[in-house]
Amino acid sequence: MKKILLLISLAALCQQAFSQTAEKAAQQFLRTLDTGLRAKVQFSWEDAERFNWHFVPRPRKGLPLKEMNDTQRAAAYALLKRCMSSNGYTKATAIVQLEYVLRAMEGRGENDDYRDPGKYYFSVFGDPAAGKPWGWRVEGHHLSLNFSALENKWMAGSPMFMGSNPAVVPDGPKKGQQILKEEATMAFSLLGGLDGQQRKEAVVAEKAPADIITGNKRKAWLQEPPGVGFAKLSPAQQQQLKMLVAVYVDRYTKLMADVIWKEIAGAGWENVHFAWAGGSAWGTGHYYRIQGPTFIIEYDNTQNNGNHVHTTFRDLKNDFGEDLLKEHYGSAHR
Q1: pTM for the whole thing?
Q2: Average pLDDT over every residue of 72-98
Q3: pLDDT tens for residues 116-163?
Q4: Which residues pair with 205 in a beta bridge?
């Protein structure tokens, strides 16, 4: 019993250390900004802008990369690096740079403002030095990463959206680049290994939806999960499904990912379902969803002849730090 309590205490200390590290990175970023730029980047915790997220090219609030100097950009990216795994950070920054590829593919000029890697906006919500709830976001075309923290003890990172257009770069210096490759190949492998009955349950529609179904909703919600249940998969297939979930969960730091893994296991892997819609080969529109009591993963590739991917991870308990806040306010009013 003492050993279990010690492990719990160590885990709590690690979470606190991580949250404090992220807090310090946010403070450092804010210190690089003058009054005018800080007014652009910082909002109150209660500001509705915290929930105003999307993944399409559109006007945004916050401070864009193109309005930062080298020192400020380095501090902004240092904050991002504190909250992502190495793999997750690499994917996020590659998505930003992919705007150059899309600009060239669409025949836009070098000074085009629509496909612009400088139009990724950083926002901070609340005061990361106050010991109260705070959060931050980086967002632009095909990228929306939302983080919430509470009293230096905890950090949540949902909603998380990553997309890629093109999914596979067809030509030019980056020909063959596929930023979200694992998300596709591992899912196709899982689908291809299903037997007749499993596939019958897993494939829920002949045509894939036009986009992820949860979209940019404030609160992710879908009906009871369709598809083949975890318990109906063989042990090898169950491991494949877990590895596919890991592609999304392990975009976060290990400490954040460990919390998500614990929640999934606590709610029961037997309650997780894998559903597929659309074609079963690359180049055709296809979609899959992995859904359990605590999370929803969606992947959609239907635009641009099946070469334009949208992916999302939603923590059904902790989108925008909701569970953290419930616990905080509940304990404050006892």
Answers
A1: 0.91
A2: 97
A3: 999 999 999 999 987 788 999 999 999 999 999 987 667 889 999 999
A4: 277
28: left (phi over 0), alpha (psi -120 to 50) or beta: alpha
Residue in the block written with tokens 């250390």:
17
Tell me how many degrees the CA angle 248-82-137 measures, rounded to the nearest 5.
70
Q: What's the mean pLDDT when you consider all of the chain?
A: 90
Q: Which residues make Cβ contacts (< 8 Å) with residue 289, sequence separation at least 6?
A: 213, 222, 225, 226, 227, 273, 274, 275, 296, 297, 298, 299
**Beta-bridge partner residues of 312:** 161, 298
In this structure, the number of other CB atoms found within 10 A of the CB of residue 50 comes to 20
The pLDDT of residue 333 is 45
Are the C-beta atoms of 298 and 311 separated by less than 8 Å? yes
Sign of CA dihedral 29, 35, 36, 42: positive
pLDDT at residue 245 greater than cutoff 90: yes
What is the β-pairing status of strands 273-278 and 134-140?
A: unpaired
Helix (H) or strand (E) run with residue 300 in it: strand 295-301
